[in-house]
């Protein structure tokens, strides 16, 4: 059976598909959040070195991973949009950006909250903190560029080019920051050298999956709004039941 | 009609842009004065203690150079864009990337090179030794072209937008961080008696990579902005 892979690259068909997917993804995300946080707060043992304060990793680590992952996904969609000139890919890229920025911010925020009891400072110029901050700047650049161009197609393409340049630069920035840090302050505080407890691992993986599903559901929700906004003059939008009502 | 060779085209664009810059010398001087002023503000802000200033000097000079180059980037394409020259340039059969490279080189000669030349004077104000000054200059010499080239991408993307200047800095500054780090690390290395080749080689590598990719990316950005 031949599957038409391009069927859902049209905004009109994807709009309906996204609408059907959102409840499942969102509910799964909610369940996994509750489960992951339950394991994190009640099942996982107290850390030998860091005490109770370590429990913030159940938010902090997933948020950091997802924020980096989303930048690559965003750049990938942006590149698809630029290369194949597909409208939906560009819309996906601009729908992902705010969520990516949010996760980068959460990661920095929780990192600061974690840093205060552990390192005695809200902010340390650690390589990973600094590169996360730069990642947040890159997200801001993408969003700001997209927002300041009125013509949607030009905005898509310009922001896509920026995202691609940014993603080429991310490894360079990461390693430069890493070397800069080792040059300046020697070894940094690292998470416990010994292997993690199984319950900690489970909790973290479950919240990671929850964050990932949350990102998917919120992106689909946002891309639906973007589709409606961009396609408001088309016939299929005017025939939608939610638009008619 | 005789076809221009790539080399000829490059020379032509560089000469044209330099001539235009020389007709408006105030623009060039403003950036230089800005650079000197920002650097001079730092001792006033943090106090005149020489040991601290000596330590801060490379960072201060590099950040000031970064900001100064951001200021001048807005003008890289905007004048040609406003009077329609840029559109004519894009219509011609020669490679747009080469043309853009010519504009980048001219921009660097006008706004980057003066900063490199004036940096030692400012470095002396910060009590830097001859050896560290030489490394600082070498780093700036290799690094400021990268700022012009990365900045050109941002300038092309923000062409004709309201609030383009601030937006441009927002886009380009994060991308310039590696240059800043390697540039200042080279000076730190020589100050503590280490070899500078690693850091300078990395800047040179970045320069080579920018030389290959940025003209092409900027040309694409210009096509997006003008379509």
Short description:
Chain A has helices at residues 11-43, 57-84, 87-119, 127-148, 152-185, 198-230, 235-238, 241-244. Chain A is mainly α and 245 residues long.
The overall average pLDDT of chain B, rounded, is: 89
User: Could you tell me the strand content of chain A as a percent range?
Assistant: under 5%
Largest sheet of chain A: none
Largest interface: A-B, 25 and 28 residues
Gross geometry of chain A: globular
Structural class of chain A: mainly alpha
Q: Report on the biggest sheet of chain B.
A: none
The oligomeric state of the chains shown is heterodimer
What is the rounded distance between the termini of chain B? 27 Å
Q: Are there runs of chain A of 5+ residues with pLDDT below 50, and where?
A: 184-190
- Which of globular, elongated, flat, extended, rod-shaped describes the shape of chain B? globular
> So how many helices of chain A?
8
Instruction: Count up the helices of chain B.
Output: 9
What percent of the residues of chain A sit in helical stretches (DSSP H or I)? over 70%
Unreliable spans of chain B are none
Quick one: how many beta strands of chain B?
0
User: How far is it from the N-terminal to the C-terminal residue of chain A, by CA?
Assistant: 39 Å
Give the % helix of chain B: over 70%
